[in-house]
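Handoff note, outgoing to incoming analyst
You'll be picking up this chain. Sequence as last confirmed:
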Amino acid sequence: MTLHIAAVGDSHTASGIWPVVLEGLICRQGISAEVWDYGINGGIVAPAVEAVLGGSYMDDFFQEPVGSKWISSELERCFYGYIDACDVSMIVLQGGANDLGYLTRNYTGQVERAAAYMRELEGKPLFHEIPEKLEMMLSAINERGYSAVYMNMPPLGRGRWSDECARAVGNLARGLLNERLKGFCARERILYVDVASALAGSDGWLSDEYNGDGLHLNQRGQVKVAQVVFEVLKPSLAPFLAAGETGCHSIG
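Most recent structure output, in case you need it:
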């Protein structure tokens, strides 16, 4: 019996090696495993959304912040096609960072105002639309009989933007979303992978050890993600270990 896992997410998945590393870690337990990479780069998705909807995705965002304008909506459309077409046992979902970035883009250079805006949004529909879509996808995984796993968002690192902006806007928004999804996963008994804590330094920023470009992880960070996911999945691997079939089949 082969364990099939689909890794669905944004550029942290599409441009990363963690799915391949995760497959290797599982295989070393004597389990036949395939981890399929279904990541979508946000930089590719945004122009596609513009082409479909017309107008400027970026400029129109605040004027019409409806569901179809969110990156996670595009991920959602692809997502349902993925899980309906693949014979998988488990789906690891990761995403939301692109949405949060576009949510605060009009406040670039106005850090205090942006931070206040994010706190104001915490209890409003505009902010909650992002985690709601992720929650819908996780619920869909369960409804189809697969095991759902959610990987939270890592903190931002230094080097891509000002310290003030990343601290006040990026990490604040990510913290709010992570806490929301953590509670949802606990209620719905969905495995929650806290890569944010594993990757953060003592100051709450993405550790320099794992920082690639201030947003994405370097190779060491990707390996760390795979290790953290593997530790969370370990209790679920027993049935596949008992099956006695071994082997690795990398598909990326």
